[in-house]
UniProtKB/TrEMBL annotation:
It comes from the Eukaryota. The lineage of its organism: Eukaryota, Metazoa, Spiralia, Lophotrochozoa, Annelida. InterPro entries: Endo/exonu/phosph_ase_sf, Endo/exonuclease/phosphatase, Zinc_finger_PHD-type_CS, Znf_FYVE_PHD, Znf_PHD-finger, Znf_RING/FYVE/PHD. It holds the Pfam family Exo_endo_phos_2. It comes from Ridgeia piscesae. This is PHD-type domain-containing protein.
């Protein structure tokens, strides 16, 4: 009987404690459930000792009265050391490698940064310096998992739900930062999803054509000059992505930045064969710019216009016998020296009265400039440097024509021209790195040159017996001329002309047709790229880039896998049937130069 009264007393005290405070709907439902459970378990006329099931309720009421028990304890919202890219826990594991900034103490998985083992090993040397992409701090002694241990904890009281951690830039190279980003963003409550709180620009790119093509990027039909501006962050790692983008966008000129190349890597190993490649490599870690111009366009490199910065110029010929200069620029860090070198290059161009049309594209890393009104935000940490960029472009009579953000909410990649009236439209499409690709169409007519078709001999249908007879006759003819005292030049002419005539007579041939397709780009990848484009549009509308980053990595892995599977299967099938032609065909396509018989 006493125990029954004790239970009623605890129930009354608990109810008074709860109703004396303000609680939300969840707590109200919990209390109502307790009272309902009590009414089902006891009879008001007979107060007896609660059953074993009711003993649980008595324990809960006693815990509530203690006043120091958190309701609904569970897993913490975020790990103690979340990765700045995937936001999953950075734990102590022999197979897990990560890097940490000395200033902001933010950790990154090595796999999330796509950092090779060699670069990761360099960070453990005391003489290696790297710049943090989040806080712009120069790190001299880096912490890695090989010399620093972390003890993560995965549980915390629910009352600490207001604790937040600033969100970081998605991916960066620790040796050379790609793109600075403001730190006024926070992680989402879900550790596998992140929603950026920064507002995105509402400015829309100029668009005058309503007809769209069936491309996976949903672009208008190409008419005249199309320029593609792309930030690669290592072309070697994104060769398949770049080829797929070129296949759909079909640009005439490609302005690339952050190629991360050196002299040991040939252009034919990475770039399509129907483009002429102009490069300016840093030859150290990071950086580098390049220009790709279609081979049927009359173009030439302009090294005299370059300066001591990462800038590259090429000249293309227009139909009205005028020339247009197209430049690719990259500014890794905002500094006045780079702006001054850019000014030197532009001054050299403007001094020449013949060069009027200028197009300058690239990654300028100046997110705090409002190009519509031509000023810099007052809270910008590098206001003087960014203002210098505005002054330099205005002095060169350059107008910035792209207004859509290129890296989440930041406008980092820019397109300048001296004649903005020729720009038909400029849009952002899903990129191959953490930057979007800019596609800009210009209403100018280019001077195309007729592409010479190659003559391909069909040796399988050759008349070898007639060839042997001709070669025997040729041998006797050369011996006769040699015995009569003919000179070397005469003997060479006889040999070359007779050999060429015999080959053309007894070996059938055909002219090559120009086809620029990717055989490994199948229907599955085409649908995957269309899905990537739809998720990209949704991410720009909702400002939630988590799904887009996931599909971007999926596309990258799928295209790499499809390309290598196609190459391996083609070569393997040929070798299994004792046919080495597929192997040598692939080797020939990777050659830098086509060396033939001397004239």
């Amino acid at each position: 009987m006493f125990q029954g009264f004790l239970f009623v007393l605890l129930l009354i005290l608990a109810s008074n404690r709860f109703f004396s405070q303000s609680f939300d709907a969840t707590e109200t439902n919990s209390i109502n459930g307790i009272f309902a459970f009590s009414r089902r378990s006891f009879n008001s006329a007979h107060l007896t000792w609660p059953s074993p099931k009711s003993n649980k309720t008595l324990t809960i009421l006693a815990l509530f009265l203690s006043g120091d028990i958190q309701t609904n304890p569970g897993p913490r919202h975020q790990p103690v050391y979340p990765c700045g890219f995937c936001e999953l826990a950075v734990s102590w594991s022999p197979n897990e490698e990560a890097v940490c900034c000395d200033e902001c103490s933010i950790w990154y998985h090595r796999s999330c940064l796509e950092m090779c083992t060699k670069d990761y090993s360099l960070l453990q040397r005391s003489n290696v310096q790297w710049l943090c992409c989040r806080c712009q701090t120069l790190n001299i002694s880096s912490f890695t998992f090989r010399n620093f241990e972390i003890s993560p904890s995965f549980y915390e009281p629910i009352a600490n739900e207001n604790i937040t951690l600033e969100s970081l830039s998605p991916t960066f190279n620790p040796l050379f930062t790609s793109s600075p980003k403001s730190t006024d963003q926070h992680m989402s409550e879900n550790p596998t999803r992140r929603s950026n709180n920064s507002s995105r620009s509402s400015n829309k790119a100029k668009f005058t054509s309503s007809r769209t093509s069936s491309s996976a990027f949903d672009l208008p039909q190409k008419k005249n000059l199309r320029v593609m501006t792309v930030n690669c962050r290592s072309v070697i790692n994104k060769k398949a992505d770049l080829e797929a983008s070129i296949n759909y966008i079909k640009p005439d000129v490609i302005c690339g930045s952050e190629s991360w190349l050196n002299n040991n890597i040939k252009s034919s190993e990475l770039f399509p064969e129907n483009y002429t490649a102009y490069r300016k490599d840093r030859n150290t870690a990071g950086g580098g710019v390049f220009l790709l111009v279609r081979k049927d366009i009359v173009s030439s490199n302009q090294p005299d216009l370059d300066s001591d910065c990462e800038i590259l110029w090429a000249k293309i010929q227009l139909q009205n016998k005028k020339n247009m200069l197209i430049g690719s620029f990259y500014m890794p860090h905002r500094c006045n020296n780079t702006i001054q070198e850019l000014n030197k290059s532009l001054t050299t161009i403007t001094r020449s009265s013949k060069q009027k049309q200028i197009i300058l594209c690239g990654d300028f890393n100046c997110p705090d400039i409002s190009w519509e009104i031509g000023n810099v935000n007052t809270c910008s940490p590098d206001r003087s440097t960014q203002q210098s960029l505005i002054d330099v472009t205005e002095s060169a009579q350059l107008t910035q024509v792209h207004n859509s953000s290129t890296r989440e909410s930041k406008l980092l990649d820019l397109v300048f021209t001296t004649n903005p009236t020729i720009v038909t439209h400029s849009v952002s499409v899903p990129g191959i790195s953490d930057h979007d690709i800019i596609v800009t169409d210009f209403d100018v007519k280019i001077q195309y040159q007729n592409k010479q078709r190659r003559q391909i001999y069909q040796f399988a249908r050759a008349d070898w017996e007639s060839l042997n007879d001709d070669f025997n006759t040729l041998s006797n003819k050369i011996n006769t001329q040699y015995n009569t005292g003919a000179c070397t030049e005469s003997l060479w002419s006889t040999f070359k002309n007779t050999l060429t005539e015999s080959i053309d007579k007894h070996i059938p041939s055909k002219l090559s047709s120009s086809r620029c397709n990717l055989p490994w780009l199948n229907g599955k990848l085409h649908r995957l790229l269309k899905r990537k484009r739809r998720i990209y549009k949704k991410a720009k509308e909702t400002n939630n880039w988590t799904n887009y980053k996931f599909i971007q990595k999926t596309c990258r892995r799928s295209m790499r896998k499809a390309e290598w599977e196609y190459i391996n299967n083609t070569i393997t099938q040929g070798l299994q049937t004792n046919n080495s032609k597929p192997f040598w065909k692939y080797i020939k396509s990777r050659k830098q130069d086509n060396i033939g018989v001397a004239p």
